[in-house]
Design brief:
3 helices
Length: 81
């Protein structure tokens, strides 16, 4: 579960940088998509391990990918409109 904590810290750091330095919204979306890619890779790796604990972790990664994809999509739609 350390990767989830690091992901949340990194996203918080990006939000602070966005607020302090008035970053372009596109850069924030790129970083969020990068984190989605990492979580997807972790899902694929955990899914291949034949262990019930790893399968549960893979399901957790899958749920993170789904919810974060919806969040990024809503952010993009909000920025467009």
């Amino acid at each position: 579960m350390d990767e989830v904590r690091y992901l949340r810290i990194a996203l918080l750091y990006v939000a602070v940088l966005y607020t302090l330095y008035d970053l372009n919204w596109m850069y924030v979306q790129i970083v969020c998509c990068w984190f989605l890619g990492v979580k997807l890779l972790l899902y694929i790796i955990c899914r291949r391990v034949p262990n019930p604990m790893c399968r549960a972790l893979a399901n957790d990664h899958r749920n993170d990918v789904i919810s974060n994809t919806a969040a990024v999509a809503c952010g993009i739609i909000g920025q467009i409109s």
